[in-house]
């Protein structure tokens, strides 16, 4: 939900600027198009937040999907397969875990728990990398 909250917050600032431009230049067609676009994004963000609060996260949500992809990769990589990968593999895993933990830091609830659990799982699977 934090992601959609950030989208909403940034679009509200943008809406303020576009509204000011529309009132200063009522005949400006581009300002009106921008206003409509920002308004639509705000409505979509509000609807997504409402759905998240009502029903919880979607199964096909990109955050959960990302975590599933990481889990599948880690499941597929046995010790023998890992040794065949390029030499930057370990640094890429470290970067992935660091980025994921940074995302988890700004996320709350179910998403945070899923991301942190996956990062710990990666760390367990590849103890020499993290």
Automatic annotation (TrEMBL):
One of its GO terms (biological process) is cell-cell adhesion. One of its GO terms (cellular component) is adherens junction. Keywords: Cytoplasm. It comes from Lymnaea stagnalis. It comes from the Eukaryota. The keyword Cytoplasm applies. This is Uncharacterized protein. GO terms for molecular function: actin filament binding; beta-catenin binding. The keyword Hydrolase does not apply. It is found in: Cytoplasm.
């Amino acid at each position: 939900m934090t992601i959609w909250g950030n989208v909403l917050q940034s679009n509200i600032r943008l809406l303020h600027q576009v509204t000011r431009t529309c009132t200063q230049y009522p005949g400006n067609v581009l300002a009106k198009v921008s206003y409509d676009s920002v308004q639509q994004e705000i409505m979509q963000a509000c609807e997504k937040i409402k759905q998240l609060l009502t029903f919880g996260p979607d199964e096909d949500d990109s955050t959960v999907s990302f975590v599933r992809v990481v889990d599948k990769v880690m499941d597929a990589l046995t010790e023998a397969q890992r040794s065949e990968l390029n030499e930057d593999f370990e640094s890429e895993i470290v970067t992935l875990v660091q980025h994921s933990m940074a995302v988890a830091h700004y996320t709350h609830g179910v998403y945070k728990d899923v991301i942190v659990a996956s990062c710990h799982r990666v760390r367990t699977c590849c103890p020499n990398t993290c």
